[in-house]
Every structure is written in structure tokens, then in C-alpha cells.
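Journal club side-thread
Mid-discussion, someone asked how the predicted structure for our own chain would compare to the paper's figures. Pasting it here so we can look after the session.
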Amino acid sequence: IFYLYSRCISSTPTVQDTTEGWFSKLLVRRIEPTKESHSRLLSDKEVIYELQTHNVRADSSQEYLQNYQKGIQLIQGHKLSYELVASWTVELGDLDQALHLWRYTCKKVLKEDPDFVALQKERGKLLRSRHLQYLLAFSYWPLIEGRKGPNIYEMRSYSLKPGTMIEWGNNWARAINYRRNNDEAFAAFFSQIGRLYNVHHVWCYKDLQARKETREAAWRSPGWDECVAYTVPLIREMHSRILQPTSFSPTQ
């Protein structure tokens, strides 16, 4: 017998506007940032995403991945409303690191299931550190869809100046139109809990050469350089990681 520990997190209720979208409102400044939450302006979905960042001991990567896969199978076996979207290891950037992206509307954790507790205890011995963030998806980004491999992914993470999230969304709602041709845009989020004013853009490419060619093509598009010029002053810090899907990742 096991007990479910339920922890439900909900975003601000979505209000349907049949006359105009949030982006048009931002352009004409009808909504003041002090009157509406950033979450409501920038995301139109009730779904919460969880980004787990695990820094793995250098000598324990295979054991760690086997442990994590068993945990996924246990969760799936209990049919919880907790879905793995993607699972990656870092190939370039912060090495010995694994990233796991989950989605849910109401998270249920097997807090006292003996098998789940044993896996977590074993996993703790394989890690150097870990970090957890709750995220919302930007409404102007394409819907997240699983990819068939082989692919590589790039996660570009930005730490923004406090108070600039609305301006960031305003610019990227235009900028994303320059990056749609090659189906490279996988996902984009902003943080709700954890490190705040964090943005993560995830791109999908066949390989590093495809990444190079796609990014160069964007710079040749009139207007892309202007969008970049407007967003750069909003950034305090940024970094990029090249990711490889794990064998059990739903998206390859």
C-alpha cells in the first residue's frame, strides 16, 4: 500500500478574449504590467512545467540514468498525471549534467511508496547537486511536439533584469517568426518558482552543422538583427548548452 502526496500548483485562470490577443494589447499598452500578472500576459495555458537539473558525479552517469529510468517507469505504472516531456544529458556546456522536463496540472508524488523512496535514496548518492524550477510556456511559441531522432537540442538560458519580462515577450513574439522555417523551435518557458526572471529557449537541430546554417540564415533575414538588438539590453546573464536526448526521452 502506498500513499499519494498531492501538491497542486495552478497558474492564474485564463480569460478568453475574443477581440484581441495579449500581444496586440501589449503593442498598444492597454494592459499595465502593474495591473496584470506577467503569467497571465505571457502564457495562456494552465499547464505547469517542471525542469529538474541534476549535476551527476562523473563516475556515475550510467548508474544514474538507469536509476532515473526506473523512477519514470514507476510513475507511469501508477498512471499519475505527471508526464515526462523530454530528458537530456549535456554534451557541450555544463558537463556531467542531466535535464528532465515534466508537465502536469496537478503533481502527485509517490512520497511513501517504498520502491520510489529507495530509488530517490540511491539517486542521492549519485548526484553532486540539483536544482528545480517551475515554469510556464510562452503563448507565442509553437506548441511542444515530440521529435523523431536523431537530433541534438540547444537550451539557451537567460537571466533577465527584473521588470523586463513583458518587454522580452513583446520582442520575441515578433522574433520567433524569423525562426519558424526549419521547425527548430521546440519549447520556451519563463520561471515561476526557483530562479526568477529566468527564460529558457529550446531549439532542435539535426546536428551542429544544421544549427550553424539555420542560425546564419536567421541573421540574413531582415528584422532579426533588430529584434536581437532590442533584447540584448534586457539580459543580465546567458548561457548555452548542447543536449543529447537520453534513450528513454519521449522526444528524440
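Post-session note: The longest helix spans residues 61-77.
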